[in-house]
Amino acid sequence: MVVTGGSMIFRLQRSHILALLVAVMLAFPALPAHAAGKLVGAVLTSDLPRYREAHRAFVKTLAQRGYDQSKVDIILQSPNPDPISWANAIRKFNALNTDLIVSYGAPATLTAMREVDDTPIVFVDVYGPVETGVSPSMTTTGRNMTGVSSKVPMITLIKTLLGIKPVNIMGVLYNSREAGSVVQMKEIKRIAASEGFVVVEANVTTPAGLDGVLSSFLSKVDCIFVAESSLASQNFEKIVHRANAKRIPVISQMPEASDKGALVSLEVNPTEQGQIAGDYAAKILSGKKAGQFPVLTPKKVDLVVNLRAAKALALHVHFQVLSAATRILK
Description:
The protein folds into 2 domains: 38-150 and 269-299, Response regulator (Rossmann fold, 3-Layer(aba) Sandwich), CATH 3.40.50.2300; 154-268 and 302-329, 3-Layer(aba) Sandwich (Rossmann fold), CATH 3.40.50. The protein is 41% helix and 21% strand. It has helices at 14-27, 49-64, 83-96, 106-115, 154-164, 179-195, 207-217, 230-234, 236-245, 270-285, 307-312, 319-324, and strands spanning 2-4, 7-9, 38-44, 72-77, 100-104, 121-126, 145-149, 169-174, 198-203, 223-226, 250-252, 264-268, 301-306, 327-329.
């Protein structure tokens, strides 16, 4: 070291400089270029358990693919289930310049499609992406998005019911504000035409409307199909309780419907949906284009028969029906 005019000059050997650089690199390791600063916005159509379950699986899968909380921030929005709230949630993501948007349910997905220009979208739990207008086909969406369909073979659900109880008039509770709910109502009407029963439909969009419908509806039908909607999911036990009092079975395709009292349900697994979405998201964050991936449907679909509900309704379930079920509630 040499001191000149009150200043200090350090003469470092080359080996000392290299040692210093190595120490700095070890102290501040660089993130991969494609992983640093990634921001994902996730929006639920409503705060339902099945969306939460799918989102937990999404986050876990994303971490397993190398995108844990140290490499990606995930902002979760669960707005009120109405068009203005869905739009506001997506606009927040636009303002934050997110790298990816994940939308749970058809209403949130359709809103994202309207509000987003270039940001890739991965949708989850959309019943009938083609029928709802989310995608022109299951092979490609034609834009910077892809996702997971929750559509099930509805005829399997109806055939299982008819194997337990003949149906003359089926009531369908649906919500015209949710595209997937409307698609299911139309599917039931098509099946009714071939299976020889009549459909009485009821559009329910508010809790007060549900109470009014149930008061008059239950005297007209001998079975109720509950189409998916935020309102129906939040009030499912009430629907079952009112129907059981009249010895009327309830069926649905919503996850956990049989656990909540439905006689028969046909359910796509939310966890598997979240896993598929997480895998897609990891690929997109690493640089792949969302539009190059097909829309997928989970492989695990459970046909659930509720023997507790059958007993309460004084219905006998034949062995042939039980043998077709993947899960039986005793």
